[in-house]
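Is this the right way to post structure tokens for a design question? Let me know if I should format differently. Anyway, here goes:
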């Protein structure tokens, strides 16, 4: 039986992730960002994160676990970026993915779509990286991050998606039925007319692609809702969901 493991916001805990996957006979991992694949201390140069985390990596309190997987990861992994990533590395691959960064480790770039073999045929999986910023994400304001260009040099700027990439992903998926959409940012969630989290552009993306299921990261809590025919699932931090081959039944591990 082929199993797909869904996870998010692992924040550098690669060993736990792969131990869990191997223990559960998982054949593919789909990850919704903030994985922090940091290869070496050099990658911390362009890593937007609270300084506490950077210090912990530097002191060794947070081990650089990904450094042990540079020759390949034990389970094929498809990932998008969140807002805490080694962008000096990942931004070299921001074009449409997936890109294989180390053997078996695939990054969607800013966005991408691919097919994954499962026990019951191929699943079409699309990914859309990064988070929304009300000023910098808008197409008319957007400028790609550059490590050496004055105003753009903060790696935080690399974490904001470009509205134009939403349309590019919709184009890339035209004529395909998307089974799974991976997101770091969330569709807008309103309560009493007030925005609680997420953004309207991601709602538009979900409505345009109408995947069977969309998985979101970033919020670190579990939640579930429907947007039109799409089941939208927030994945909590430090938990794992395994999608069975008949997919539809999720259970917590
Ligand atoms: Mn995040």
């Amino acid at each position: 039986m082929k199993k797909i493991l869904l996870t998010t916001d692992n924040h550098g805990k690669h060993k736990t992730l792969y131990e869990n996957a191997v223990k559960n006979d998982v054949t593919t991992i789909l990850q919704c960002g903030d994985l922090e694949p940091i290869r070496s201390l050099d990658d911390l140069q362009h890593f937007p994160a609270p300084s506490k985390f950077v210090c912990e990596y530097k002191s060794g309190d947070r081990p650089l676990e990904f450094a042990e997987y540079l020759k390949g990861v034990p389970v094929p992994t498809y990932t998008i970026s969140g807002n805490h990533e080694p962008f000096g590395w990942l931004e070299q691959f921001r074009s449409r993915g997936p890109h294989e960064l180390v053997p078996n480790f695939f990054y969607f770039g800013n966005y991408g779509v691919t097919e994954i073999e499962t026990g019951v045929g191929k699943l079409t999986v699309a990914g859309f990286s990064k988070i929304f910023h009300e000023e910098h994400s808008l197409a008319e304001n957007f400028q790609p991050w550059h490590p050496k260009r004055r105003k753009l040099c903060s790696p935080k700027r690399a974490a904001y998606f470009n509205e134009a990439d939403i349309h590019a992903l919709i184009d890339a998926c035209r004529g395909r039925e998307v089974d799974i959409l991976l997101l770091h940012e969330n569709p807008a969630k309103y309560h009493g007319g007030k925005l609680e989290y997420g953004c309207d552009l991601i709602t538009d993306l979900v409505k345009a692609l109408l995947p069977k299921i969309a998985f979101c990261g970033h919020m670190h809590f579990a939640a579930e809702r429907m947007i039109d025919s799409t089941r939208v699932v927030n994945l909590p931090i430090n938990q794992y969901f395994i999608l069975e081959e008949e997919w539809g039944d999720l259970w917590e591990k």
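Format looks fine. Someone answered above. Worth noting: The first helix runs from residue 14 to 23. The chain has five helices and 15 strands.
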